[in-house]
Design brief:
Layout (H helix, E strand, L loop, with lengths): L7 H12 L2 E3 L11 E3 L1 H20 L4 E3 L8 H7 L1 H4 L1 E6 L6 E3 L28 E4 L3 E3 L9 E3 L5 H6 L1 H7 L6 E10 L14 E11 L4 H18 L7 E5 L11 E7 L10 E10 L1 H8 L2 E4 L2 E4 L18 E3 L4 E3 L2 E8 H12 E3 L7 E3 L10 E5 L6 H13 L4 E3 L5 H11 L3 E5 L1 H6 L1 E6 L5 E5 L3 H9 L2
Parallel strand pairs: 3-9, 21-22, 21-23
Antiparallel strand pairs: 1-2, 4-5, 4-6, 7-8, 9-10, 10-18, 11-12, 12-13, 13-18, 14-15, 16-17, 19-20, 23-24, 24-25
This protein binds glycyl-adenosine-5'-phosphate.
Length: 471
């Protein structure tokens, strides 16, 4: 049974720490809010998720190429994209405790200074007026810390793709419709990072910008919504906790003709609430046009240049030609873009929450039911006792498995404890070598999810795993 209820999130966070999935960053110095480290199991899990995405979205497709751009880009990128002016949250300060909050999250925030007068709610404290707070982290490139050298850590990987659109077209044989995919770190100085890794200040994104003819963009938008939703269900997120939500007109960005979110019912949310895992946005030609012509704003349903007080363009574009010539249609146009934008950390967290299962009937009740593609360790090998010739049989089996998949060997502790450790790590299969192995050459296979044990010939272990894992 999948776990539910109030303290589930606490138990998941505790298991993540205890078993080395996720640690608070810089923990020995008290941690740093909004930053997390992935431990030995967590790094494998997150890597498996990113590899699955890359394999399914890039390698398995003929219409996708990859890219890996720098985190710090020319500051004009962020001026033309709109992030410099608009990537802000409204924040308020509590005059009592001096804490700073997102104006839209006040209700959930406790004021430690006035708990009795104002029972835990900041919206009734002494608050400053809401002010805009830009979420981009700043730094300086070069020795001089002046405006000229001010740079930003990217708040999304997407812009690296747009500004390389022409490079990719010129250096490869891609023809529209095609996509460019990128996985990489993004940074947002979130005012109130919270809910474990869900809202962090440093996180990884897996983004696709899919370029197509304007006349076909509505169809591609629907296509990508379906493909991305199915990707999560195929990897084991149940459809009951997962949903696709189409944004209402009032929620859409000024340039977007349509956006859907793939959302998951994370256990830290109230019953019936969902949190965003991925957004699929129809961005029209906003991004390429902005990098060509300069920052745009929407007026009367049209994109027009954003002008300063003198009526001049506020931020100049690159001036480069980012149009595309379609030689089949004999037509030049600015491609439309469909953007499926996923978070690798949110995805990892969703798969952790989904996998976390409590089964009180088992000797050790907590287990992680990861899909075989995502499981950090695919198999474990145990000699029942660390003597009597059993390690000599177990070790070659372990080495054979390790040639193909990450595996663990454990010869210590009771067999129950060894199974429990592997259940918590989410290892799909354990192979135990015992006295009978010496007599008939068979080993015990234990299935993580059912706990059922069967025997197979020791020469069939790798073949068995290949079949069961499908990898
Ligand atoms: N290029 C579009 C874009 O960045 P977004 O909705 O702001 O869109 C896309 O971000 C995804 O990135 C989100 O669905 C989420 O999975 C992840 N993400 C965004 N902010 C995050 C944060 N502070 N912590 C962790 N993941 C985040």
């Amino acid at each position: 049974m999948a776990a539910s209820g109030g303290n589930v999130m606490e138990r998941i966070v505790a298991l993540c720490k205890r078993r080395g999935f996720i640690f608070p960053s810089s923990e020995i110095y008290g941690g740093i809010n909004g930053f997390w480290d992935y431990g030995p199991l967590g790094v494998e899990l997150k890597r498996n998720l990113k590899d699955a995405w890359w394999k399914d979205m890039v390698h398995a497709r003929e219409d996708m190429v990859g890219l890996d751009c720098s985190i710090i880009m020319h500051p004009q990128v962020w001026k033309c994209s709109g992030h410099y002016d608009l990537f802000c949250d409204l924040m308020v300060d509590c005059r009592a405790c001096k804490a700073r909050f997102r104006a839209d999250q006040l209700k959930d925030m406790q004021c430690p200074m006035k708990p009795s007068k104002h029972p835990g709610e900041h919206d009734r404290c002494d608050l400053t007026e809401p002010r805009e707070f830009n979420l981009m982290f700043e730094s300086y490139a070069g020795a001089v810390k002046d405006e000229e050298n001010r740079v930003f850590l990217r708040p999304e990987t997407a812009q690296g793709i747009f500004v390389n659109f022409k490079n990719v077209c010129d250096s490869t044989r891609v023809r529209i419709p095609f996509g460019i995919a990128q996985i990489g770190k993004s940074f947002r100085n979130e005012i109130t990072p919270r809910n474990f890794t869900f809202r962090s200040r440093e996180f990884e994104q897996m983004e696709i910008e899919f370029f197509c003819h304007p006349g076909e963009s509505a169809r591609w938008y629907e296509y990508w919504r379906d493909v991305r939703l199915r990707w999560y269900t195929d990897l084991g997120l149940t459809s009951r906790k997962l949903r696709l939500r189409e944004h209402g007109k009032d929620e859409l960005s000024h340039y977007s003709c349509g956006t859907s979110d793939i959302e998951y019912a994370f256990p830290f949310l109230a019953e019936g609430d969902f949190g965003e895992l991925e957004g699929i946005a129809h961005r029209g030609d906003f991004d390429l046009r902005s990098h060509m012509e300069g920052k745009l704003v929407a007026r009367d349903g049209k994109l027009v240049p954003d002008l300063d007080e003198q009526g001049k363009p506020k931020y100049k574009g690159s001036g480069r030609d980012l149009t595309y010539y379609d030689d089949e249609r004999k037509e030049r146009f600015i491609p439309h873009v469909i953007e499926p934008s996923a978070g690798a950390d949110r995805g990892t967290l969703a798969f952790i929450c989904e996998a976390y299962t409590v089964d009180e009937s088992r000797p050790s009740p907590e287990l992680m039911r990861f899909h075989p593609r995502l499981a950090p360790i695919k198999a474990a090998v145990f000699p029942l006792v660390n003597k009597d010739g059993l390690p000599e049989i177990a070790e070659p089996i372990y080495r054979a498995i390790r040639q193909r998949w990450p595996a663990q060997y454990d010869a210590k502790a009771s067999i129950g404890k060894r199974y429990a450790r592997m259940d918590e790590a989410g290892t799909p299969y354990c192979f135990t070598i015992d006295g009978q192995t010496k007599e008939d050459g068979t080993v015990t296979v234990r299935d993580r999810d059912t706990g059922a044990q069967t025997r197979i010939d020791k020469t069939r272990v790798v073949e068995f795993l290949a079949e069961k894992l499908g990898l």
